[in-house]
DNA-binding transcriptional regulator of glucitol operon (Luedemannella helvata), 130 residues
Amino acid sequence: MRELWTPAWLVRHAAAIVLVAAFLGLGWWQISRALGGNLLSYAYAVEWPVFAGFVVYVWLREVRRTLRGVEPSPAVAEPAPPTPQRPRRVRSQAAYDDSDDPELAAYNDYLAWLNANPHASAADYPGRYR
């Protein structure tokens, strides 16, 4: 039980009490508005106590986890080991002839340059596609 009386846990206890009281107070306020004729407030009158119940649920879960000594799960998952990949076949020649279309040939040269210079930006290309 000593773990629940540390400064960090005292702040958590106080936050849980304040949130539950505030949510229940807001639920009561919505009930009074609903009785005054605001129909939408009936939905909010149900919603705020649900929020208070969620705060109690999370608080109880964390208290039980602390008393059991279970470490909380990490927020960031460890990366999976890389899976080996088979080498891909790459064609060394184009499967088509672009010599009859100069614009297509220039664009293919641009794409080949981008592929050969992966860390360069498109503005570094010495041709006309900038």
Summary: Residues 7-35 form the longest helix (29 residues).
